[in-house]
Amino acid sequence: MLYSILSLALIVQQPELPPADELPAITVRGSYMDYRLRVGLSGAGVASDLIVSTDPGMNCGDARFDRTPGPYRQCWLRGRRNAPILLTAQRQGEFGRDWTVDWTGCEPRDAGRSCAVAISGEMSVGATFRAL
C-alpha cells in the first residue's frame, strides 16, 4: 500500500509532457555534399586499359573485362562538391609513343595522360584510348 502511494506521488509530481505529435518547429538547411562522376570508356582494346583515380578511388575498365584478375572495374565515383578529381589513363606500353587518350568533360593534364575535373553536380567524363 505504501509503495502504491509513493508511486502515485511520483506520477503526480511529473510535469505533463506534450503529445508526441506536437513538436516545436525545426528548420533544416543543407545540400548534398557529394555527387556522382561517371566515366565513359571507349576505344579500349585490352584488359589493361584503365582510368584510375586515388581520392576518391576508382578503377574504370571496359565492361568486357569485369571478370579478369586485377582491380575492380567501377566506372563511377562519388566526390565532394568542387573538390578536384584527377583521372589518369593506364595502358601497357609507353604513353605518347604506343598509345594516347582523348578526354571530354575535363581539363587534360600531364601531356594528356591525366585530366582534372571539379564535381559541380552529376557529371560525366569521356576517355577514348587510341593506339599509335
Q: Mind explaining what this structure looks like?
A:
- With 132 residues, the chain is mainly β.
- The protein has one helix and nine strands.
- A five-stranded antiparallel beta sheet has the order 3-2-5-8-7, with no helix packed on it.
- Strand 7 and strand 8 (114-118) form a beta hairpin.
- The longest helix has 12 residues, at 2-13.
- The relative contact order is 0.21.
- The model has no long low-confidence stretch (mean pLDDT 81).
Defining key terms:
132 residues, mainly beta, 5-stranded antiparallel β-sheet, 4-stranded mixed β-sheet, 9% helix, elongated
Short description:
With 132 residues, the chain is mainly β. 9% of the residues lie in helices and 41% in strands. The chain has one helix spanning 2-13, and strands at 34-42, 50-54, 57-61, 76-80, 84-90, 99-104, 107-109, 114-118, 123-131.
Strand tally:
9
How much of the residues is beta strand, in percent?
Answer: 35-45%
- Averaged pLDDT: 81
Enumerate the spans where pLDDT stays under 50 for 5 or more consecutive residues. none
Largest sheet: 5 strands, antiparallel
Describe the SSE topology.
Layout: H1 2-13, E1 34-42, E2 50-54, E3 57-61, E4 76-80, E5 84-90, E6 99-104, E7 107-109, E8 114-118, E9 123-131
Parallel strand pairs: 1-9
Antiparallel strand pairs: 1-4, 2-3, 2-5, 5-8, 6-9, 7-8
